[in-house]
Design a protein that fits this description.
It is built from 18 helices and 12 strands. The protein has helices spanning about 5-20, 35-40, 50-60, 65, 80-95, 105-110, 120-135, 150, 160-175, 190-200, 210-215, 220-235, 260-285, 290-300, 305-315, 360-370, 400-420, 460-470, and strands at about 30, 100, 135-140, 185-190, 245-250, 255, 320-325, 330, 375-380, 425-430, 450, 455-460.
Length: about 475
């Protein structure tokens, strides 16, 4: 064999090995939860008090929203291994190959900084191992709205040190679990945390006009985005072999009446505030002009530097988690920076999460493809509930409207994938009924009905319909 033939042979061998060594990643079907909403055990094994422990137990925050004090102190008891092993068995029965969960910072570092709680670290070690043994890929969210109350009392995201505190916590997590967890999520829904929840939590004490208060939260959101970039860089500097991303709620806006110019104009602005305000810095290195002009008007102190924005854009997430429930239906009469759109629902039968319009999931996925460079995407939350459906009759829960919601949203998501959107997975919120923040236990969004007194689980009709969907798309 001549030298030329040898080189040609080696070239073909290299192509062969490259082609066949790269296994196609399976499409991930899953369910999602959050630590505070499902774990309970709020004073177990040295756990520190978290922000939401404080809000529910000391402030009694749900009294202002549902008229009753409710907490996540027990929730659905998923900190208990005996219980969660049964829940893993239900996930196996469902047929999912991924599970989005979150860690409780206040368990791992009870005081926010300083001493690490080895008992908590061991708990999550065992949970992750149990999931992997069941063939279920853990998607680990480091921060899902909750953090140690010690840090809340120091100002939380209003404190410039918060980014350093979080980065220290993230470093502990990566070094402990980074070799076996292949998907990490830095933050969940900064828009919801800073513009929706903060508004609700401070409604009693806030003295600022609505627009000024809304925009005053932007510095906190910017600090979180900078921290997101720093932690993504840290993850890659550690040479870990997985992926790290961020989760955004994306709610494409639509006018209440497409024939009214004021509704159309208001919807365009609301769309920018909900979606582009976070997508643009991540993928384009700048804030949308329409939003920035308003930020400067109502919050002159907000002065993001070109250097900071360049840093955010330089550390793009490996994937984007998309939480989609419903579009934002907007009326021209609503204040531009109000949250009135949350109440606007033209549906005759109203769900717990807004108008049911699955075509808007398709629209946002195609928008990511066409306007944001087609990033790798996982739908990390999608689901709903109807008060009339979540009733146990003769040991069964028939929820055809939830089942239909999931079926149609999957269809539109896969339509976008077929048309080139870089969609790699879909997860239902939630696997189980649980503690739904300021709504407490009044809203059930699970595929599995939970009796909150006995902890008994009962798969709903939607559980079995989702099971059929997963089976019918094997090998996707």
């Amino acid at each position: 064999m001549t030298m030329k033939q040898i080189i040609h042979f080696l070239f073909l061998l290299c192509i062969y090995e490259t082609t066949f060594s790269q296994k196609k990643e399976p499409f991930l079907w899953g369910v999602a939860t959050c630590a505070y909403q499902v774990e309970g055990a709020y004073q177990t094994d040295g756990k520190g008090e978290s922000k939401w422990d404080f809000l529910t137990n000391k402030v009694g925050i749900t009294q202002f929203t549902i008229g009753e004090k409710q907490t996540g102190n027990v929730s659905i008891n998923m900190y208990d291994r005996t219980q969660y092993l049964k829940d893993i068995a239900l996930m196996k029965e469902l047929g999912v190959n991924s599970y989005r969960m979150s860690l409780d910072w206040s368990r791992i570092i009870p005081d926010g900084t300083g001493a690490v709680n080895e008992v908590a670290l061991k708990h999550y070690d065992i949970l992750i191992d149990d999931l992997l043994a069941a063939g279920i890929e853990p998607f680990v969210t480091l921060y899902h709205f909750d953090f140690p109350n010690v840090l809340l009392q120091k100002g939380g995201w209003n404190n410039p040190e918060m980014g350093n505190w979080y980065s220290n916590y993230a470093s502990v997590v990566f070094k402990r679990y980074g070799q076996k967890v292949k998907h990490f999520i830095t933050f969940n829904e900064p828009y919801i945390e800073f513009f929706l929840v903060e508004n609700m939590l401070n409604a009693q004490s806030n003295k600022l006009p609505a627009n000024e208060y809304y925009m005053s939260r932007m510095q906190m959101a910017q600090r979180q985005m900078m921290t997101n970039a720093s932690v993504i860089k840290m993850y890659h500097d550690l040479k870990l072999k997985g992926e790290i991303g961020i989760v955004l709620n994306l709610n494409p806006a639509a006018p209440w009446d497409a024939k009214k110019s004021e509704d159309v104009k208001a919807a365009e602005f609301q769309d920018v505030l909900i979606n582009d305000l976070f997508l643009n810095p991540l993928y384009k290195g700048k804030y949308p002009k329409m939003a920035l002009d308003s930020l400067k008007k109502y919050n002159p102190s907000f002065q993001p530097s070109d250097k900071d924005l360049a840093f955010i854009a330089s550390q793009k997430p490996d994937f984007l988690g998309v939480n989609f429930y419903a579009p934002a239906i907007v009326k021209g009469e609503d204040s531009q920076m109000s949250l009135k759109w949350l109440d606007n629902n033209p549906d005759s039968v109203k769900s717990n999460v807004g108008p049911v319009k699955p075509e808007y999931l398709y629209k946002i996925l195609m928008r990511l493809k066409n306007e944001y460079g087609n990033p790798k995407v996982f739908i990390t939350e999608n689901g709903t509930g109807f008060v009339s459906e979540d009733v146990k009759i003769n040991g069964k829960i028939n929820d055809p409207m939830r089942a239909d919601y999931i079926k149609r949203h999957v269809e539109y998501a896969l339509k976008a994938k077929k048309e080139g959107a870089n969609l790699n997975g879909y997860m239902v919120w939630s696997g189980w009924d649980n503690f739904e923040w300021v709504s407490g236990y009044t809203k059930r969004l699970g595929l599995i009905y939970v009796d909150f007194k006995t902890q008994e689980r009962t798969p709903k009709q939607s559980f079995y319909e989702y099971q059929k969907i997963i089976k019918s798309h094997k090998g996707l």
